[in-house]
Structure formats: structure tokens, C-alpha cells
Amino acid sequence: MTQVLGEFIKALREADVRISPSEVIDAEAVLGLVGYEDRMLLAHGLSQALAKSDADKEAFWDVFDRFFAFAPFTPPEPANSAAGNCDAEEQGPDDQADGDDEEAGVTGMASSGGSGQGSGKATGKGEGKPGDKAGGDQDAGMFGAEGESLTMAEELAQLLEAGDAAHLALRLAEAAQQAGLSDIRFFTQRGMYQWRILQLMGSEELGRWIDQAEGGSNAAAAARATRLRGLRAGLHEQVREYVETQMQLFAGNEGRRLREDMLASQRIGLIERSDMQIMQGLVRKMAKRLVSLHSRRRTKARRGTLDARRTIRANIQFEGVPFHTIWKRTKVDRPRVMLICDVSGSVAQVSRFLLLFLHSLHEVLPEVRSFAFSSNLGEVTELFDNYPPDVAMGRTLQRFGGSTDYGHAFRDFEQLALDDVDRRTTVIILGDARNNNGDPRADILQTIQQRAKRVLFLNPEHRSRWGSGDSVMPIYAAYCNRSISCGSLKELERVVTDLLRTAA
Amino acid sequence: MTTAIHQNAPAGDQARDGLRAANDAARTPSESVASIHRLLGAQGYISSEAIATALFIAQSLEKPMLVEGPPGVGKTELAKAVSAITGKPLIRLQCYEGLDEAKALYEWKYSKQLLYTQVLKDKLADVLSGAEGLKASVARLHEFDDTFFSEEFLEPRPLLKALWEPEGAVLLIDEIDKADDEFEAFLLELLSDYQISIPELGTIRARQKPIVFLTSNNTRDLSDALKRRCLHLHIPFPDQALERAIIRSRVPDAEEKLRTQLVAFVQSLREMDLKKVPAISETIDWARTLVLLHARELDRALVENTLNVLLKFQDDIERVGEKLNDLVGKAKSNLR
After folding, report:
1. Which residue from A minimizes the CA distance to B63?
2. What residues form the membrane-spanning segments (chain B) (predicted)?
3. Chain B residues with CB inside 8 Å of A361's CB?
4. B117, B137, B153 — which closes off a domain?
5. Which of A119, A296, B110, B310 is 20 to 30 Å from the Cα of A162, by its Cα?
6. Cβ-based neighbour number of residue A388 at 10 Å
7. Considering only CB atoms, which chain A residues are within 8 Å of B31?
8. Contact assignment for A38 to B102 by CB distance below 8 Å
9. Do A179 and A195 fall within a single domain?
């Protein structure tokens, strides 16, 4: 596999596009077919082999644009005419020798077309090396006794003075590849990579020479050194930018991932308001994963009913004598869920995410009815189905916010929806069970439990605090099939996964 | 009891179809893409660069192509156009819930088998005459046992038909997202190796690899295994220029002015929050309607009366109706 494609795929994977090895092989075939000449052709071709959903396509185009960005190396100020002359004289003898290499390098770039730095990496590797050597032997004379070790520096100096953007970009890409820039993970590594790249490009040696020459007695050399110092500073700036963009490409998501991981296991009540947006994205991502995991409808054999059509079909090879019997199968029903959420201040945030979570699972949980309460209880299914989560939650809080009264809420639920609770229904109650010393009305919960398939009670408080103060959790827990302490997003996810798995 | 039916049929002299010819004539990939674009255009299918590229790659790599996009953007039409270009027959398999291999792949002709056994009952005596004892009779019968499970009694369904087509075919598996997961899994063998295993007959390979298109409306996520085996093309709604070109090709009678206006109008509808936004097929229908009504340009009354061609929900019609003046005005002023 070519280096470019490998790194491009690395960048894509970093952007959360899942790419399997067989798709990599496809991409390689596409690359072999279309080549680098036509940028759009390449983009369309690769996108067909690598990005296979809307979200992936979007990520693909973003990464493609950044990865194959033709960011031409802004040439440093071209050397003034006097210097040019001086260079020409110095360079005289090696012009011809270099010529071929230059040309090879240029054709290399041309064939890779507009694909810029990326392709430079591939072609550069082959072309650059011999050039270094060939140029080196003759350049040595200029630096005198210093010998071959300075050739890199000298070549860099010449490139800088000539303002040869294409070659500088090539050298930069080459050095970046040698330094392993695509392995960059954290922003703290930027400095290190930048230094390594500059070293590989010969900038360090050039620096040494500049220091020496400026202090030296040779006036021409000193003048040249001063000029190069400026050019070299420009180079440093560009390398820094390059490392920056590459880090965005290869590690842009690393920090986000760490943060998401941390947020997912933190207690929801403690999460800063500013992180809510990330949290919502996270919930959606979790929901999507669960949907794809559980979107297969399971079937269960219905015992005792023969499927005549399929049996005949299966036994046709035995002249219709039914050796194999095939039984009718029924699709397993999706669980029906009723969600009763406490939206009073203390648990509103957790409710928000559970509501968002379950309503994001619409594809695998088509029958979710949600109720919200503080003291009065009402149905909010429509709100969450039709409006974005922020709006829905805002309206819910507006309507049902206030101080908690579980007894009242259960009474409302009894009137509103108890009749719809049947043996297929899973009832999930989310709340802290802090009833402000009111009547808990556990008898209604008991009725619900008798009718429903099961009742889950999710309490964001830690188990050790259940029953302390005005908490009536121990009373409720008696009438629940399971009561779970559930404070963080990860714990929520576990509950929902469990709900989907035991749906049958 | 395996009968060899067309297994490994030699490729023979390759059909010189349009796509391949276009490919051979062109020297660079860009040229082949351009010529595919022209060929599609000649069939009245105006393609975007992405579509032409996808077609070029799919047929060069001989891989199935999964086409996704909103309904009515020409996913099915693409397969039809390719069939017309290549001169290969289009074999279409419409997917739905409950589709199984008996309907997709093959079926035995039960009634014919039964009829034949009845008719041939008398012959049985002749066949068995002279056979001494049960063992010999069974041995004698064995010589004939594949008779009723041979090709004559096999009813090929679309998938098998596509594999059997001697010159190759264009196989369109339409709306794969409507089929069950089991069927999706069943397709994997066909998609990766262009072969199918039938218990009674053995493995059947394609005589000529068919050009396979799968379309999906994204009603559910397809499995990764399926996606992995296909190239993926997403066809979005076209931009204004492309849609004008499509209308020009499909409804040549529509005058320039009308065409520009109606496309602008439809494009502005797509930006609205509607239950179902009009797709290209609706634009074409609408253009035809307007031509029938001898319209030369849009006006409010005309649009109001024909809106039901474009929008399929009463809610949407009402919502658009409220803003009709604005929308028509904008479409008319937008004479670029």
C-alpha cells in the first residue's frame, strides 16, 4: 500500500470513519485506476470505496480537503539580485549534475498533480535521495573543509534562496514522514516533531553555519548568512503551521475522545453546563450504536404450528414427503416502554439524558411513552418526538417543574395511563424518591407492578443514601423488579442496553 | 444428485458493450469518465461527476454498487440507463419484507413435476420391466432420479436469471433496505463472488459477471458486511444547473424561461421544512404538466392548481400555499 493512502486512511479513521481492510484494498484498486491526475476524480473514487454512509461521506470530504490540501509552500522572499548572481557563480559547476535530478523531481510532482503534500510524500521519497547525494559531492567545495555532513544544510540554503516552493514542500513532507509525524497524538508533542522535522531538513546545521559565518571574517559569507537567517525563520514558521495542520488531521479527535470518556463516567449532576452539548452528542452516539446492535428483529419459534408452505418447499427434494418440518415463527415484539421522569431540580439533568436517550432509540424502541412530573404528571412523548431536545426539555421544565410530590404524580399516572400498562410494558421510573415527607402512595406502584412486565427504578443517588432523610426509596424498591443507582451516562447506557437485550 | 448446469461457462468472446468500448477508447480515467457521462446523457440520464466516476470505477473493478439517496433522485433510472447503454437486459428484483430465496433465486416447478410423474406413470412399468427384485428396480430408478430435478423443472428467479444470462446482465436489487436481514446476508455470496449455492445443483457461477446495482432509501442501516462488498454512491438532490439540464433532456418541450423558473421554484421548496420535499421525478412530472397546460412561465394561479403534482401531503400543500406569492416571485426574479 502506498504511504499516502495509508496515511489518508489513518486520518479518516481518526475522524471516526470505520474502514475495514477489504475497503483499504478497494481504495488501493481505485487509486491504481484513477491515479492522482484529477483531484475530483480521485475524491469521488475514494469516497465510493471508503465512506459508506452519510455521516462517513461528510467526514470523508472534510478529511480529503484537509489532507490533500494544496497548501503551496509560500516561498520566502526571493533572494535579491545581488545574491542571485553570487549564488549563480557559486553554483556554477553543479548546475548540470543537478539538472536531471531536478527534472525528475519536478515530473514526480507533476504526475501527482494537485494533490500537493500528500503525493509529495510518495514520490519524494524516491526522487529526493539521489539528488542529495549527487548535489552533495559537488557542493562540498563551497563549504570547504566541513565536508559532506553539511550538504543538507547547503541544499536547504539554496532552496530557500531560490524560493523554490515545490521542492521545499517536498523536503518538508519527506522530513515529516521520516519523523513519523502521522503518529502524533497530543498537542504537547508539537514542539518535538517540529524540531525533528527541521533537523531532518537540515535547518539545524544551517543554523550552525549561519552562526559561524556571521562571526567569520568572510564578508560575502556573512552577508549571505544574515539573509539566510531571515529565510530560516520563515521556514520555521511554516514548519510550525504544517505540524499544526497535520496534528489536526491525525490527532484532532484524540483530545475530544478523552474528554468524552471522562464525561461519560462522571455523575451527570456534576457536569458543567458548557459540556452539555458534548453530552448530547455522546448520547446520540451511544444510541446509534445500540440501534445498529439491536435493529435486527429477532424471531421466536411458535411451538406447534406447522408452516405448510415452507415445509413443502423444504421437502420437495424428497418428493413431498415431509422429512423436515418447519414451524411458524413469530417476530419478537419490541418492548413497550413507559418512562416516568422526575424533572424537579435535583434530577432534571439525569431525566433529560434518559429522555433524550430513549427517544433517540426510536428505531428499535418505537413504543416509548414519556411522562414528566414534579408534583403534577403529564405526558411529554409528543414534545420529545417532535422538537429538538433543548426545546422539549425547556417546555417540559416550564410545565412540570417545581417541588416533588411522588404521591400526587402516581395518582395522575393512575388516571392518565394505568389502563395502557399491560404485561408487555416495561415501566421505568427515574427519580431520587425524595418525597418532601408526603404520602408515597406505594399502593399505586404496586398496582403498576402487578400489571406491567416489570418496573425499573433508576435513582441517581448513591445506594448508601437511599432511605436517608425524606427519601422513600426503600418503600418503592419493594415494588420494583429492579432498582438501580444510576448517575452517570455509562450507567444509563448499561440500563438501556439491558432493556433492549431482555426485550423478548 | 448434482447436475452440472452452466458451471464455469467460458466467457466466450466478450460482449463489446458501450461502457467497455468507451473505456477502451479513452486513454485516461478522466476521459473515460467524461465519455460515460456522454453515454448516459445520450440515454437522457444527466449524471453528475460523482455518478459517472462511480460507474467507471464499479465496472472497472467489477464490484457491485450500492446507491443511496432520497427517493426520486434517479437511483433506479441509473440502472435502466446503464442497461440501455450496454445493451444488456435489465433484471430487476424489488425487495420487500418477507422476500426469500424461493422468490429471489429459484423455485422448482412443482406442478410440472407432478404432471410429468402422472403422465409418465405408464412408462415406469417399462423402465422397471426386467428388473429382478427390489434392489435392481431401485438401481434402475437411480439412473433417472435427477430427471425431475434438472434445469427443465427449475424456475429461475431474478438472481439466477442474472447469473445465467450469457451476455451478462444489469441486475438491479431495488430498495434492499426493505428486505429482511436474512436476505441481506443471503446476498453476500452473490455480491462478493458472483456465485450462488443451490443445494440440489451445486454452486452456480455467473457466465458473465452482471453489473449489479443495489438501491436503498436509508429506511434502516444496512449491515457492514454488505456495505463492505459494495462501492457506495450517494446521490443527493441535484443543484440548480444540473436539474435544469435534466429537465431540458427529459422535457424538451419546456421553454427555457419556464424551465429556469420551475427549477428555481422546486429548489426553493427543498429548502423548506416539508414532510416530503419534491425529488427530480416530481420536477419532471410537474414540468410535463406545465407543458401540457401550455404554460410559458409560472404564475400564482397556475402553480396553485398544479401544486399537487409536486407535493404529496396536504399539510405540505397548505404550508407552501401560504407562501406561494413569495416563492413564485422569487423563482421568477431568479433568472440567472
Report:
1. A26
2. none
3. none
4. B153
5. A119
6. 11
7. none
8. no
9. yes
Let me know whether B195 and B98 are in one domain.
yes
Under an 8 A CB cutoff, do A37 and B30 touch?
yes
47-106 in chain A: CB under 8 A from chain B? 47-49, 51-54, 57
User: CB-based contacts of B120: which residues, under 8 Å, 6+ apart?
Assistant: none
Expressed as residue numbers, the domain containing A114 is: 81-252
Whole-number Å distance between alpha carbons of B329 and B310: 18
Check residue A109 and give its pLDDT: 37
**How far apart are the CA of B230 and the nearest CA of chain A, in angstroms?**
8
- Interior angle at CA A491, CA A378 and CA A274, nearest 5: 75
Mean pLDDT, range A291-308, rounded to an integer? 67
Q: How many CB atoms are located within 10 Å of the residue B166 CB?
A: 11
Listed residue (A165, A98, A103, A164) closest to A133, CA to CA? A98
Higher pLDDT pick, B29 / A405: A405
| Residues of chain A positioned with their CB less than 8 A from the CB of B70 | none
A326 lies in a domain? Answer: yes
Q: Which of B182, B191, B198, B231 to mutate to test the interface with A (most CBs of A within 10 A)?
A: B231
Last residue of a domain, one of B191, B206, B234: B234
Total domains in chain B come to 3
Distance separating alpha carbons of residues A60 and A27, to the nearest angstrom: 13
SS3 label, residue A468: coil
Full domain range(s) for residue B87: 18-104+157-234
Cβ of residue A362 closer than 8 Å to a chain B Cβ: no
pLDDT for B330: 82
Overall domain count for chain A: 4
Shortest distance between the Cα of A390 and any Cα of chain B, in A, equals 19
For the stretch A457-495, pLDDT in tens is 988 888 888 888 888 888 898 998 888 888 888 888 888
| DSSP-derived 3-state class of residue A105 | helix
Give which of A386, A391, A407, A257 is closest to A342, Cα–Cα: A407
Q: B68 and B204 share a domain?
A: yes
With residues binned 3-state (H G I as helix, E B as strand, rest as coil), the percentages for chain A, rounded to 5, are: 65, 10, 25
Chain A residues touching B234 at Cβ < 8 A: 54, 57
Q: Please give the span between the terminal C-alpha atoms of chain A, in angstroms, as a whole number.
A: 47
Q: ∠ at Cα A161 (A160, A165), nearest 5°?
A: 45
The span from the CA of B226 to the CA of A289, in Å, is: 18
Question: What does the pLDDT average to over B98-124?
Answer: 80
Which residue in chain A is spatially nearest to B108 when comparing CA positions? A316
Give the span between the Cα atoms of B246 and A23, in whole angstroms: 33
Give the least confident one: B6-15, B126-135, B146-155: B6-15
Q: Are residues A417 and A494 in the same domain?
A: yes
Mean pLDDT for chain B overall: 82
DSSP letter at A295? -
B211-216/B202-205 β-pairing:
unpaired
Beta carbons of A17 and A50 less than 8 angstroms apart: yes
Both A150 and A10 in one domain: the answer is no
ipTM over 0.85: no
Residue B83 shares a structural domain with residue B190: yes
Whether residues B46 and B92 share a domain: the answer is yes
Of all residues in chain B, the percent with pLDDT exceeding 70 is: 90
Whether A317 contacts chain B with CB within 8 A: yes
Q: How many residues does chain B have?
A: 336
Tens digit of pLDDT for each residue in A173-219? 888 888 888 777 777 778 888 888 888 888 888 888 888 887 777 88
pLDDT category at B23 given cuts 50, 70, 90 is low
Reported as a single tens digit per residue, the pLDDT across B216-232 is: 987 777 888 888 999 99
**Are B221 and A291 in contact (CB < 8 Å)?**
yes
pLDDT at A188: 78
CA-closest candidate to residue B216, choices B230, B206, B202: B230
Q: For the ranges A85-89, B110-114, B322-326, which has the lowest average pLDDT?
A: A85-89
